TrEMBL record, chains A, B:
Ranges for domain SH3: 6-68
Biological source species: Oncorhynchus kisutch
Annotated CDD domains: PX_SNX9 (cd07285)
Protein name as it appears in the record: Sorting nexin 9a
PANTHER family reported in the protein's UniProt record: SORTING NEXIN (PTHR45827), SORTING NEXIN-9 (PTHR45827:SF2)
Region Disordered, annotated ranges: 70-102
A Pfam family recorded for this sequence: PX
Chain ranges of the PX domain: 158-268
GO biological process: cleavage furrow formation; endocytosis; endosomal transport; intracellular protein transport; mitotic cytokinesis; plasma membrane tubulation
Keywords: Cytoplasmic vesicle, Membrane, Protein transport, SH3 domain, Transport
């Protein structure tokens, strides 16, 4: 991120945004530059300050936080402890610096095409025309299922639990960090990992599989919570969610690097494995060389159509998900803000009236004043219920959609590799004419684009089945909580009503 | 009302008011002068324009609409038909001009102490020292009930129905008006009255009973509805409410003028009765001369204490009622505005996502897309229910509190007469010393202030018993509707939830 000598981070405003009064928001205009005060407020918001010194929240989608090319520190530490002492999440922690090495949200990456290879569309030529290495044991199996090409799924699905965050320290206690316990269901043996290990894993997976499989960013920037414990809990929950999604992917979960992360037995095995993974040369588009589906070669037209279909679908779903997140955010804020206050005020107004009535000196109005007081209290309870409801139902809906937002943000790059390959294959005749390739190479390219297309289809089918599972689950939970909500409120009202009669 | 040559009405801003965005409101500052565009938008709002030409709604309590002393036309017509054709409720109708002759809301009256006798605190001296006229048949009976002094209530309560508004015309059809049919339960024979007759009745009642009994203003300015039919319906409902309250008052309902209004048999009887009523000299503080409670004389200290108690109670209830009206207004606007839109948007977001999912080409997700669509539709239904709810429950709560706001606004003047009388009696010794009155006069004054105090107690007891009845009723209806509301929403959600399983 770009910082000036005062260590400030800046952002460019991409769209006009009007603050809603009383919600701690900041009105900004397209083209304006603001200072980023806190990127970790959560819920899709960034705390920013304008040139007039006014500060408030702005939706993160409305801002483009600057990325500099001169920022490339490979080493960082989780100095959240220091960060806390010098101003909490508003300050840039070592981890956030680390983001500049590639862990930004995907949208951001796309806009600020920086120097890191994986953020540009990798050139598929290396695979299309390469002399393939001998087939090893790490083949990626695709077979034809009911829905078309699918990855080979393991008999028993991998899963893991991220738990028990513990504070560790190094450099004689000068620097502290959090270590999480990760326990896979295969060995049932916990291994310890710091956030930076997760980040290392993410980079390896992105590098190796990014051309074929969308690898969502680690949940770092989206972490909410202003207090240490809340922050750690939230980060842990989201690391758990990220690990679950990786475990559910047959290709990712079966890879050497992922298995190493989950099952290394000692420091030596971890270090050896790390070194091996970092030396892996079958990365980027070369990952397609691991695939050899037993299926008829696909026509380039068909390949292109499928690619277009997936591109359109993921783009449209991305819009739909962002729309839902937007309105969900607004509703969340209304429930916990103005609506809560309003019900409180109605409650207070009823109770005030009851107090006044109690001073009348007139006999026989206890029933009325009791009823008014109870109605007032019911409204105060409704105020509480309404304010707490988002945490109960909207939370899960938002978390799931946030996860999908991250996942969908990876598709343009993944699909981009395929589109670039199609382009290349379409140029085949010209390349033959120019003597750059021979007709045999052209045949190889046609065969390989077909393999890539099977890979993309398998990945889309994986995405669809997960999507259906996840959304069915989240909708059911959401609607059940909503029913419980209206039942709770009605219950209170009914008790109230019956008291009056 | 003050108007300039362009026929504009102005108002002074009494308190700062911040507009809520998207709600068609106008931010105004204390001391600012605004042009009144429409006083009849209803719900306690006035449409106003500031000096920069911006216009929007401002709560009527925040504005003081100017009153001029040079505006005294005794004759007016209900030219709502003309008003409609020249710009609707925004234009000042003949009736509104009539308001300057005394039919403003009470609060307004207090502030702009104008030349009309009944808006100043009438001087109780006329009664305290007057030689009383011989006792006639129209005595106002007070007896000692369980709760203290009470008016004598009739065996069967008077009631009437205001219905069947009909358009009439005069001046060869050049001017048109609305005539309402008023049918009392005593004769069961309908009589016809125009709004201006109601207004005449109001003035007579105020003149005759205003010192002893709060006579609420006619519902004119508060009428909502942008279309003729809605306007007439609303006015009729409020005239009905006003008549009901008058019928329920034992003193008012039994008075000659009120009986004339309800039971006149022909034009001649009406005109004769009108003339007699207008000549009635037993008005203002002299109304106390009609009271002769059979009860021990009250000590001046006790009189003062009771007066203070009632003054404090009505002031505090006035604050409480206004508070409830304020928060009710805000809640009404939120339900019909932002909240409705928000639920609509959530509904649309779910349905959009469903549409996108439908284009996946993946098999077996009909259950999910059906559920998403249904959830979306449910939210659109909730949006409707939420928007319509205020009309079902809040409406009645607001109408009742509005009525009480009007009634409570009359108490300061009524209580003011009593306080002025107490002042006078306390000066008794000085007046004797100055030779203005003799000791016998002083005794008379003490006896008469005691009578006034019985009258005030009877009136307060009448107010309390009505208040308890009205608020019990409105709270019960409100809570029942609220339960129905949450049940309806929950029902929809539940159908939705069960579909999904």
């Amino acid at each position: 991120m770009c910082r000036d000598r005062l260590n400030n981070t800046y952002a460019q405003v991409m769209y006009d945004f009007s603050a809603e009064p009383g919600n701690n928001e900041l009105t900004v205009k397209e083209g304006e530059t603001v200072t980023v005060l806190n990127q970790n407020v959560g819920g899709g918001w960034i705390e920013a300050q304008n040139s007039r010194g006014e500060s408030g929240l702005v939706p993160e989608d409305y801002l483009q936080v600057s990325v500099c090319d001169d920022d490339d520190d490979g080493e960082w530490d989780e100095e959240w402890d220091d960060a806390r002492s010098t101003g909490g999440y508003g300050e840039t922690t070592g981890e956030e610096e680390g983001e500049a090495t590639g862990r930004n949200t995907h949208t951001h990456m796309k806009i600020s095409l920086n120097k890191f290879a994986f953020s540009k569309i990798p050139n598929p030529e290396v695979y299309l025309l390469a002399k393939l290495p001998p087939k090893g044991k790490d083949r990626l199996a695709i077979y034809m299922g009911d829905v078309g090409p699918v990855w080979l799924y393991p008999q028993s699905p991998l899963d893991c639990v991220v738990a028990d965050p513990k504070k560790g320290s190094k450099m004689y206690g000068l620097k502290s960090y959090i270590e999480y316990q990760v326990t896979p269901n295969t060995t049932n043996r916990p291994v310890n990992h710091r956030y930076k290990h997760f980040d290392w894993l993410y980079e390896r997976l992105l590098e190796k599989f990014g051309s074929a499989i969308p690898i969502p960013s680690l949940p770092d920037k989206q972490v909410t919570g202003r207090f240490e414990e809340e922050f750690i809990k939230m980060r842990m929950e989201r690391l758990q969610g990220w690990m679950c999604r990786m475990c559910r992917h047959p290709v990712v979960s079966n890879s050497d690097v992922f298995q190493l992360f989950l099952t290394y037995r000692d420091e030596k095995e971890w270090k050896t494995g790390k070194r091996r993974a970092e030396k892996d040369e079958c990365v980027g588009p070369m990952v397609f060389s691991l695939i050899d589906p037993e299926a008829p070669e696909l026509d380039i037209i068909e390949v292109e159509q499928k690619c277009e279909l997936f591109s359109r679908f993921t783009k449209e779903m991305d819009d739909g998900v962002k729309d839902l997140l937007n309105v969900g955010n607004i509703h969340w804020k209304r429930c916990t803000g103005p609506l809560r206050k309003e019900y409180q005020k109605i409650g207070k107004a009823f109770q005030n009236l009851s107090s006044v009535f109690n001073t009348s000196g007139y006999t026989g109005e206890a029933t009325l004043t009791d009823a008014l007081t109870a109605a007032g209290k019911t409204y105060e309870e409704i105020s509480q219920i309404v304010a707490e409801q988002p945490r109960k139902d909207l939370h899960f809906l938002m978390e799931t959609n946030n996860e999908y937002k991250g996942l969908l943000g990876c598709f343009p790059d993944t699909i981009g590799v395929h589109k670039a390959a199609i382009e290349k294959v379409r140029e085949g005749d010209k390349m033959v004419a120019a003597g750059k390739i021979n007709t045999q190479d052209k045949g190889t390219m046609a065969k390989r684009i077909s393999i890539m297309c099977y890979s993309l289809q398998a990945e889309m089918n994986h995405f669809h089945s997960n999507r259906i599972y996840d959304y069915n689950r989240v909708m059911q939970l959401y609607l059940e909580e909503q029913i419980r909500f209206y039942e709770t409120v009605r219950g209170g009202q009914e008790r109230e009503g019956s008291m009056k009669r």
